[in-house]
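Exercise 7. Given the components listed, write out the predicted structure of the assembled complex. Treat all entries as one system.
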Amino acid sequence: MPSPVSPHVSPGVAPRVLPPVAPLAQDSSPLGMFGYFNDHRDEVLNWLWYHTWLSAVPVVAGLLIALPLGWVARRYRWTYPPLVTAAGLLYTIPSIALFVAMPDILGTQILDPINVAVALTVYSVALLVRVVADGLGAVPDDVAQAATAMGLTRRQRLLKVELPLAVPVIAAGVRVAVVANVSLVAVAGTIGVPNLGQLFTTGFQLSVGSPYYPPITLGIVLCVLLALALDLLVVGGTWLATPWRRAVSGS
Amino acid sequence: MRFTRPAYIHQRAARADEVADSSMVSARVSGRKGKGGGLVIRFESVSKKYPDGTLAVDRLELVAPSGEITVLVGPSGCGKTTSLRMINRMIEPTSGRIWLDDRDTATVPTHELRRGIGYVIQHAGLFPHRTVLDNITTVPELLGRDKKETRRRALELMERVGLPAHFAKRYPAQLSGGQQQRVGVARALAADPPVMLMDEPFSAVDPVVRAQLQNEFLRLQGELGKTIVFVTHDIDEAIKLGDRVAVLQVGGHLAQLAPPAELLSDPSDAFVAGFVGRDRGYRALGFAEAGRLPVRKEHAVRLGGGLGEARDAAEDGWVLVTDAEDRPQGWLRTDRLPEAALPGPVTAQELNLGGTLAPETATLREALDSALSSPSGRGVIVDGAGRLLGTVTASEVLTRIEQQRVADGRPPARDAGLDAETDVGRDDGEGGEVV
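Answer.
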């Protein structure tokens, strides 16, 4: 249903309505978020869409980078402490600093979403290197021994034994990374990158004299719902990929 | 043999038949092939020294003959597992060579070598994320064999190791320890390797399951005739399973290599004597066939028959009770039956199940155990179908032992005070308990 405020806008095109111009919902309490959502539906859904992609894609990219790094940390034991420590240190860089620095590093525009995607990929790598390394090492000794004794090459052992067995551990790390990304993306919103974070900036700007809660509450609720949905997706994928774990509790 | 072998093994076996003598000596001298289903494994002055200076194996010379079970036994730290793992190069020897027939294992790429050697370990080491069937087909899959044929053979193997076909789709965690170990054995056999290495495969299961697995393993080996090297710390297991037993001493010295009966009757030094244990005299009876024992007729009564009749048939207060097919069910004590109970029938609840049964082909140990474990003092002897043949007493078995000692040219023992307290009933051989 098109917004009552802009009946001429065709569906799918985000209306260029700036919050101060649009008539505000009367209710400034947290419950006013429903009215606020109705009034700014297209804009908010557009932000949600961006937010979803910015949360999910960096985790996938981060996992693809963390897999070989984690494998190296496992394969050459001496590399484990420096790699895991370095990865951990990456996480201490303040996100806002990284968002601001990225355009200089990448040569992109300041508000290009790619900046956020790359920065969040860095954080995902930081979280996942250790998880991958530990996951690959979680193969029970007798299983690893049997695999070697049966003549699996190193590569076959990795692909047929170590990686499948590491799935539960890696998936647990991916869940953390996805949820953490949902909140980090919101930070990027405050510098103007289109996503749900802009709801907080808007709420702050509109809180003149007394607090204006509707956009803030809406932002929090949508972020939580998004995190829950993405988390569920990871859990579901893990469930499908590990029938052997279900068998243990079953029958 | 139901398995089809790779062509090269057929050729090898045919050639081996022409070689009349495949004894250990000729194998050592010529490196010739044995005549069983497996290859000869030969350790040539093999040593393993770890970087910290520990000498795990010291110039080991050993031949595991084709088609036989060679058991490596010894205390912790004697290098038995190290020796085993040097065969498939999970551990590389510091010096010396290991030969599989005339191939120096050091010249074969490790993964190729290992795919031709079955390997079974203590906790089976099954892949938890793969089904039983997928576990079994691992090596044939690596070798690129036909999928359908591999699957068919895996199911056949499952049946052979005593696993029902519907287990194929289960995951290892859904199986008991004993069942997992059966899968482990099936997996090791799946590509029909001529050589099997087994590292304490039955140590992690309870004694009843262990005895069962051991017996089935021996039956399976009887059909397959693989060259097997078997590591254990349990001298009883070594003696039960080994065609030949190698006793290793801490530091990787081979103390003695001999068939089990010889190990028990003639230990080469104090270490071996100590290791094989103080009941070795009794255990050695397990290798001596009792021959024709003087089996006496036993007046048995049927289950469900009258108690009064049972009392009349009893001898020394005990009567043997059988089922309708003459299979012994247990002993009934009749001298304490209350007069009022006599009109009633003989029921299973009243039976004493203490005695073991000895088959007519029993070893002296089984026959003696049957007599010693029987509450009546009369050991029950049964035929191949488990039907009652008669009974034998401990003194009759002892007389037979004395006769055999004389026949072997050894002086008769002055006092036959045998150490019988050791695990009576543990040896569940072909007899089985009276149930």
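Discussion: The CA atoms of residues 23 and 86 of chain A lie 50 Å apart. Chain A touches chain B at residues 140, 142-143, 145-153, 156, 160-161, 164-165, 242-244, 247-248, 250-251 (CB under 8 Å).
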